[in-house]
Specification:
By secondary structure, the chain is mainly alpha-helical. It has a domain of 100 residues. 78% of the residues lie in helices and 4% in strands. It is built from 3 helices and 2 strands; from the N terminus they run H-E-E-H-H. It has a two-stranded antiparallel ribbon. Strand 1 and strand 2 form a beta hairpin. The longest helix is centred in the middle third of the chain and has 114 residues. The C terminus is likely disordered.
């Protein structure tokens, strides 16, 4: 029986050795897979970190662009308001100049009517009323009787002799 017991122990020892070898192989395979997974995890993590950094950079760039766009819109709006003000000022100035020109033309026509006098022969005589009225100043009443046609026997432009 010792022999059977010895054989049984050797056989059991051999089975245990095989099992140990198989478990060691599985352990080595497991470690290799773990190392491989660690490497893959690190690669993915680095990509994720760089992706997050890229995403953060894109976000910051986007915010910068939005800020620049808002600033440009603000400047454009201010420029449009300034342009509208300048156009309004120009239009007001043009209307004022037009009014002044019309007043000057009416004044010149009024003075031309006063300076043209009719003499009894139906002849029209123009006098230098503009020079006299310019020296006397507007509204001074310093125009002569000859300019107005009064007191000299001359009649106005619409009357016949």
């Amino acid at each position: 029986m010792e022999m059977a017991s010895l054989l049984s122990l050797q056989e059991e020892n051999q089975l245990l050795q095989q099992e140990l070898s198989r478990v060691e192989d599985l352990l080595a395979q497991s470690r290799a897979e773990r190392d491989e997974l660690d490497i893959k995890y690190n690669v993915v993590s680095e990509r994720s970190d760089s992706g997050q950094m890229a995403s953060q950079s894109v976000q910051e760039a986007g915010l910068g662009l939005i800020t620049d766009l808002r600033l440009a819109e603000s400047r454009t709006e201010a420029a449009l308001e300034k342009q509208a003000q300048l156009e309004e000022q120009l239009q007001d100035k043009m209307l004022h100049e037009k009014d002044l020109a019309q007043q000057q033309m009416q004044s010149d026509l009024d003075e031309a009517d006063l300076s043209a006098t009719w003499v009894p022969g139906g002849c029209c005589i123009r006098q230098a009323s503009l020079q006299k009225s310019d020296r006397a100043g507007p509204g001074s009443g310093a125009s002569s009787e000859a300019e107005s046609g009064e007191g000299s026997g001359q009649q106005g432009p619409h009357r016949e002799a």
